[in-house]
Specification:
two-stranded antiparallel sheet, three-stranded antiparallel beta sheet, Arc Repressor Mutant, subunit A, single chain, alpha+beta, 13% strand
Length: 136
């Protein structure tokens, strides 16, 4: 029962629902910076929401160099499959999807290579960005 409660707690936030929707829509793993640019949410907030979803067993994390990719958990039960079907059916801001499509167009060989493109969304610490990204 505790696992179900954790999943429902994780889904009780609009940003986390948007993250799950984008992952379901994309059908592939997404980099943290792709979420940041698509959702127009600060990097710190996106990372925090991704952590909650991962801890609830809904996402898995994979690191590749300096990039961190998230995908839907492969540990799928009928419960989680039903939840994902429900998430796919909700109406989210179509701008999220459009920004994701634009963001995915700058991948090289299917991989993220540029980092966060919207500088105002980088996490700040002491007035300087603590995320070392190459801004173009």
């Amino acid at each position: 029962m505790k696992d179900y409660v954790e999943v429902f707690k994780a889904l009780a936030d609009p940003t986390r629902l948007r993250i799950l929707y984008l992952l379901a829509y994309a059908g592939k793993e997404l980099c943290v910076c792709e979420f940041v640019d698509s959702l127009e949410e600060p990097q710190y907030n996106v990372s925090r929401h991704l952590r909650v979803l991962r801890q609830a067993g809904l996402l898995k994390e994979r690191k590749e160099g300096r990039w961190v990719y998230y995908s839907l958990s492969q540990d799928r039960s009928s419960f989680k499959d039903s939840l994902l079907k429900l998430v796919r059916s909700i109406s989210i801001d179509k701008k999220d999807v459009e920004r994701l499509k634009e963001r995915l167009c700058i991948r090289v060989k299917g991989r993220c290579v540029l980092g966060i493109q919207k500088g105002h969304l980088l996490s700040k610490k002491g007035g300087r960005s603590h995320v070392k990204e190459v801004m173009s």
